[in-house]
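User: Assemble these into one structure.

Assistant: Restating your components, then the assembled model:
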Amino acid sequence: MNIHEYQGKSLLSQYGVAVQRGLLAETAEEAVRAATQIQEQTGTGWWVVKAQVHAGGRGKGGGIKLAKSMDQVRDLSSQILGMQLVTPQTGAAGKTVHSVLIAEDVYAPGPSPTQEFYMSVLLDRAKGGFVMVYSPEGGMDIEEVAEKHPEKIYREWIDPTIGFQAYQARRVALNLGLKGQAFKEMVSFCQNLVKAFEGVEASLFEINPVLKTSDDRILAVDAKVNIDDNALMRVPAISKMHDPREEDPTELKAASFNLNYVKLDGNVGCMVNGAGLAMATMDMIQLSGGSPANFLDVGGTASAERVAQAFNIILEDPNVKAILVNIFGGIVRCDRVANGIIEACRTIGDLRVPLIVRLQGTNAVEAKSLLEASGLPIRAAVTLEDAATAVAAALA
Amino acid sequence: MSILVNSSSRILVQGFTGSEGTFHASQMIEYGTCVVGGVTPGKGGTEHLGLPVFDDMLSAVKATSANVSIIFVPPAFAGDAIMEAADAGVPLIVCITEGIPTSDMVRAAAMVQRRGSRLIGPNCPGIITPGQAKVGIMPGFVFKSGRIGIVSKSGTLTYEAADQVVKAGLGISTAIGIGGDPVIGTSTRQALELFMQDPETDGVIMIGEIGGGMEAEAARWLRDAGNPKPVVGFIAGQTAPPGRRMGHAGAIVGGKDDTAEAKMRIMSECGIHVVASPADIGKAMADLLRG
């Protein structure tokens, strides 16, 4: 589950990680009030107005602006609030900005120059454990750093049985070239960051940039925080941070039916049992000359009610020109699935697009005759090859 | 011979009396698998499906001499169940449960490794050696006995592949579903290694998906081992957009190296016969064996 920057920062602070301070605002008036409060708390004379959407690259899309006066806080906030923010990660449609974070300016000059670093904590799948990845090249796109200067990316693996150790935190601070107070601050920053990661059951922390201020403090200026979906039951307070406005409405509806659905931009809808077979079916649709309109894993039980829910979800997408059902009936018998499909079609009435049903496995032949005898406009198939041909024919 | 499980495997079911455990244990018994009992904490001393129920793995293993455990415990407790099986010295642990928190799996996988057990899964359909033992949730009738090994991250796609293999006139030595989670016990390479050493396996079907580097690792290992047996490969998710999770917790494109395209390229370069369509898996294997 993704959460907003302001939510991520509040979680980090709970674990003692120093963050750039800020307050959330949903209107320009609230933004001005927030700016006043932040000024009282921190003494800042400038503010950063930051769009709160689940997407990286907000600065590039004009979603992060520096305000040097209260008037600018008001103007920039009203510009950013309500805008369709387009970043390299949002797609062309962009994302509506519902709120902004009014944050203190942490780049003020002082005794020593400011420095930006990159830091993340994530799963290293190859090692089956978590790793802290960091670089002295902060504030930049980390994939670009990895490509141009792989030697500037460092890693500290977290041993699952002993945990992140103090010597590792010191190594991070050394590799980042820190000395004196900043060195000490970085050591506790890293230790607290890992504690936070474990405490909130995160699957990803990406802090870009981590800032060394001109007075040698270490701060998280941004916070991209993802929580492990499988662990949400253990962190109920965090699961309440979910912002449904950030999700595709059809995907939300599918989730409420416990259907695993991802919207794509193709023209052939599909309903499949099993995630691997669902992806393979999408690939097959493409090889047949179409393009998949969705991923949909209907799971083990393809009852009439579930099939009807799945069809309704698929049909919400106006781009859908055909539907392919691909079920490998193992323990679920194909004739039962066929009856479920027939009943669902009768409930919905007019499907408006051709329906191709491929049922394979237990009682596949009986299922095919049931579908054909139903009088419904269903093209029944048994092999994958046959189904692919039927998809191509439906689109022609 | 086959690999991992056979007619002398003695199986304990963890989460035996729950609905999933009950259903699949009876299916396994019906298939002819030697299930010797199960564990449900608090129900020790009772009988279920005509077999003894134990409170914990240690006493269950002691009483039954089991050498395999299969886990149907709910996600919040499954990591603990894996560790309990490893602690009891069970050499092969198969975890079917989907949705285990990653932090639990990181700990459990590390412990299993330290104890020298082998873990298959989690979030997998299990293992089947046709005609001998079904330690999983797959439909047994699809898997006819033969000399082709299958290693796959997915459930129904494994059944699809097995069905095609059988329809192409071949059969299966052992099929292993290694699971679709980001942290799993046995990798594609490890499964491939077992098949390469098995004298009763002539060829292997390797089914992967987007996300992670397991298929590339397996392919490079195979090349370095001199491609001892023919391998047909398929990668699901050629049309999956980057950054979106496709059902399986591990099926997500994170960078340019874990796309289906990149994996297929590396596999081809390493001498694996890669098919683009899932409809061609069985046929490709038959063609390869004919030479």
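Chain B touches chain A through 65 residues (CB under 8 Å).
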